[in-house]
Amino acid sequence: MPADLAVIGLGHLGLPLAQAATAAGIGTLGYDPDPHAAALTGTDGPLSAAELRRLLSAGFRTTTDPTALGRVRTAVICAPTPLGEDRALDLTAIADAARTLAAQLRPHTTVILESSAYPGATEEFLRPLLEAGSGLVAGRDFHLACSPGRHDPGNRTHRYANTPKVIGGLTPACTEAAAAFYGRLTDKVVRARGPREAETAKLLETNYRHVNIALMNEMAVFCHDIGVDLWDVIRCAETKPFGFQSFRPGPGVGGHAAPVDPNYLSYKGRSLGYPLRMVELAQEVNGRMPRYVIQRCATLLNEHGKSARGARILLLGVTYKPDVGDLAGSPAWEIASRLMELGAHITYHDPYVHRWTVLDRPVPRADSLYDSAAAADLTVLLQPHRTYDLQGLSVKAQLLLDTRGATPTGAAHRL
After folding, report:
1. To 10 degrees, the CA torsion angle through 215, 219, 222, 226?
2. Spatial distance between the Cα atoms of 305 and 207, rounded to a whole number of angstroms
């Protein structure tokens, strides 16, 4: 079928959008300058191999040819925006996507930014690139809007269709053009006052999650030190029907949406002159959880007459969240690397990850989960994938540290 939509960037935002659009009967083209990404050959992306096969059989096609972008009515930029070493968002991929699109941009096209960016990026950063490269004026010759990605990989309840999309256009007409597009994919469209409000909504959503996870991580350390069962505390607290939303501690926070302080957001290096202290503290607390897990591992081994040096340690679930194959930002990497530096012999098991490299060395993958757990001096549950029989695992493992509170009460040492 002819392409009506171009998805620029075939990563954790682009592929789910392509999947939703194709399912809605929209002719969709995926563009990525990386031939590997355009070939859809990755095994650790947001879609499973079966989902990719269904997507391709439904008519979705990919290309590395930028001229194809000139034949669509809607173009959505889903380029990655990782954090640099200075914790500023790296907008290089957005810039590349914008320049490529601008050279092919036609009048009346709707351009939407889904990539995470700082408040003001759509107007201050993306718009000039599109206008300079195309000779067209945003808001007059083409529509420009921001609709931050909200895809939650592995979530079986909240899918693309039943997750509201926030949209902020450069002009009211831009907002309506973007709303008309997303209205074909989702049950509800939420109109923001403008692009800055839409961009800041994403910032608030991400930091809200990380600040609350940081609170639970601090509570995990505190409760362990005073001999209180945090998981029972959470069970009790979440019965309150108002004023409390349940979050869970864990070995660290991963994924594509890292907590970001607006003080580090601007591509131009603009500073507000003051930090968001809650965001900085959340980053500090969550960032030290892998080290806390290492400490707990060493203590448990010591209590059983063993040293971390030479210990056989099995890590279960190395992705950044359960039931997905995405390794982005997973705390498992830091945990494994620190254990290896202590002299431990690391193996791992993950049904979604068939090869894993840490410190430039391939980590051995356990073929038989329960035999490996029985042979390991310590098994550490990092992600409770649904495929794991946690009751059986707790019986087989010599020593089990559960960082997610997923095992039956009393079956393992919990974070």
Report:
1. 160
2. 41
